[in-house]
Amino acid sequence: MDKLDAVLACIDANADAALERLFAVLRIKSISTDPAYAAECKACAEWHARDLASIGFEAEARATPGHPIIVAHDRSVAGPSALFYGHYDVQPVDPLELWEHDAFEPKLDTRPDGTKVIRARGSADDKGQLMTFVEACRAWKEVAGALPIPVTVLLEGEEESGGRSLPGFLEANAAELKADVGLICDTNMWDPATPAIQTMLRGLVGEEFIVTAADRDLHSGFYGSAAANPNHIVARILADLRDADGRVTLPGFYDGVPELDPALKAQWDALPFDPRAFLGAVGLSVPAGEKGRSVLEMTWSRPTAEVNGMGGGYQGDGFKTVIPSKASAKVSFRLVFDQDPHKIREAFRAFVRARVPSDCKVEFLEHGGGRAIRFPIDAPAFGKARDALTAEWGREALFIGGGGSIPVTHMLKTSLGMDVILAGFGLEDDRIHSPNEKYDLKSFHKGIRSWARILHALSK
Amino acid sequence: MDKLDAVLACIDANADAALERLFAVLRIKSISTDPAYAAECKACAEWHARDLASIGFEAEARATPGHPIIVAHDRSVAGPSALFYGHYDVQPVDPLELWEHDAFEPKLDTRPDGTKVIRARGSADDKGQLMTFVEACRAWKEVAGALPIPVTVLLEGEEESGGRSLPGFLEANAAELKADVGLICDTNMWDPATPAIQTMLRGLVGEEFIVTAADRDLHSGFYGSAAANPNHIVARILADLRDADGRVTLPGFYDGVPELDPALKAQWDALPFDPRAFLGAVGLSVPAGEKGRSVLEMTWSRPTAEVNGMGGGYQGDGFKTVIPSKASAKVSFRLVFDQDPHKIREAFRAFVRARVPSDCKVEFLEHGGGRAIRFPIDAPAFGKARDALTAEWGREALFIGGGGSIPVTHMLKTSLGMDVILAGFGLEDDRIHSPNEKYDLKSFHKGIRSWARILHALSK
């Protein structure tokens, strides 16, 4: 039996113990956006540092202006080096009443078809995914006494809350962190049977604005129509943001957005993708984006504007004839190709200001931003990783686009000059960011085996 | 000294005792919306019944499905009869920390300019106002042994909590309650020196709608632009509701809305009203309603559409790249002249449905409705009341419009066919429904004298 086979056998033999470790970390309520959970974030960081140290990494949970960042090195062998990134923080869990179980009490469920799923907040995003890599390292160390290549593990605790500490951290520690290739496990498979490496990522601009009209809440019977209503102002701005054809109306928004390369478009059109099934899975049927674009284009290669939150006035039961003093909205733009996040943020602010009456005020809160990215799929590391995934899953791994933004990918590319292999084992129905998040047990187990293979392949 | 002069002298002589009685009723925590205060509401009703009985009314606190309704008759004389309506319940007092004193421990404060104010929850809305009428009756009985006209007093305990018991009560007791004219003391003066009778009331349609798109919250990175976003749909509907000139765009909305009678418009234009001061008092300066209309028209004689609440998606601190499953809004329309609440509700629902994509759902919640009302200002009773107010305050009493709805006024008009004289002594800075509610001592004292004069005038 060669080394890789022994490692895979070790992973199979220790599957229950790996699951126990994942459950332990899923019980930690590391909600990064809510200051009430700061101690849990710290506890989660310390758990990971201890765990990585236990398998031979030089591991530290390092303080930042926000939540700790874990850096762990195992450079006992020579060869091309890898930097693995994951995040130990999770999304908030509201609305709580929609969870069918305690979000932080992980459990293994068997579905009617016999497949098993791990249920908990963070099971897929990203604790379950990041632990696939850690468990692969553990098996290599146990079987071979060393990793196939030098590895640094970098775990962040602010991915779900703007990631403010990471850029400065990467810059300050660039020499220590730079490696020949980046590895991230925070993406999806193509489908439950088909692995995929995401090689295009959209960028992001997150922006919140708050409109203040009168200096107090008013009675709409007395002030209605005479006094500016910030709900109307916000609704108007949000409505103006897209035209009847679904195009974003910000001036200059489409600068740097070419049509897709015809060869790539042909490849995408040939993918086994059914837009009706994609939308049907969440109870919808009508693509809501730009007219004349395919759903894959909408979600992979076209920029978007989405209102992620809006609110103003009385939202409780019953009715209150109030004109609120304030109303607000949170808007995100997904960027593609060469769109400039800074220019788009400025264009949006100008767009909003132009629609706020002269006697009202508007303030802006910046919530992260980053450019879109494309990786060179003909570089050797990408081919090796694809072949390793193909071997594990018995199905040709795909190079795909993707709709989400993974800001750290952009930072690794920009600050450290690294290409990143985005190989993840999430599935579309994982309900990440929603109540009842899950991660397939198969994703977890074969994800560990996949990383064991990729580490091996990269050493060749 | 004629009888009226003697009554006015009696009111002046007994001013302190009247204030003591008001303080006694202000100490009762008759918060109708909170079941925890049901016993206090009952105690308050019984206090009023006893008090009215003590001055010779046949008074009863009658049980209802909600809080008791007091009916008190004094029909010992002949002549045109009056039904006086007031409410003994009060608004909740939260947020408690904003009160500068105990909300239910009334006190008399002297302001820097030497004027005195009564501070307590309910001092203006409506205990202080309703007691002006009761004290006027007391003085007439004490001085003349009888009221100038037959009077029925009707005091409700659910005005601040939906008033569910009153419509059925009015219908069931229509014959007993019907009078030649209605009297209500629950409105404001024009300004602290100028009395007013409100003769136009706008109607109301309250409506809530909830748009459901996907059957769960989605990640905007994966589904953005492909999946319908209910925030966009709701924002579009709300934005479409008014055009660039501030007009409501619902088809047929302005049916039954004539231009204001030129004579009345001229009278309003001549009123000492400064729109800049009106808006400036709440930190605004630009009238937000229909272009080409005065602020008084906007708030008195033109119909409006106001978004009282809207919400969807993540509204907490930080950012969540979510596409919510649902978003909603609460909208109220103020109606004037002959607008039909039913037709407008239906037009609004059709307007909303036309803007909800075929794969999304919308549901509606009805939140009350009623027609606008105008009273015949050339009817003799209105002229008599105006002259009585003019005599007391030494300043011509005004017939004014008003933006708010007073549901009981509509009921008295619709169920009992009665015109209602709305004469009140509240002031704009009374902070009704807010912390630190007050009622000017001058409003209380001259309010009592005003009703003494109006009762006398109506008997002539």
UniProtKB/TrEMBL annotation, chains A, B:
Residues 209-359 form the Peptidase M20 dimerisation domain. Keywords: Hydrolase, Metal-binding, Protease. It holds the Pfam family Peptidase_M20. It comes from the Bacteria. InterPro entries: Cyt/Met_Dipeptidase (IPR051458), Peptidase_M20 (IPR002933), Peptidase_M20_dimer (IPR011650). Transmembrane segments: none annotated. SUPFAM superfamilies: Zn-dependent exopeptidases. One of its GO terms (biological process) is proteolysis. GO terms for molecular function: metal ion binding; peptidase activity. NCBIfam families: PRK09104.1. This is Acetylornithine deacetylase/succinyl-diaminopimelate desuccinylase-like protein.
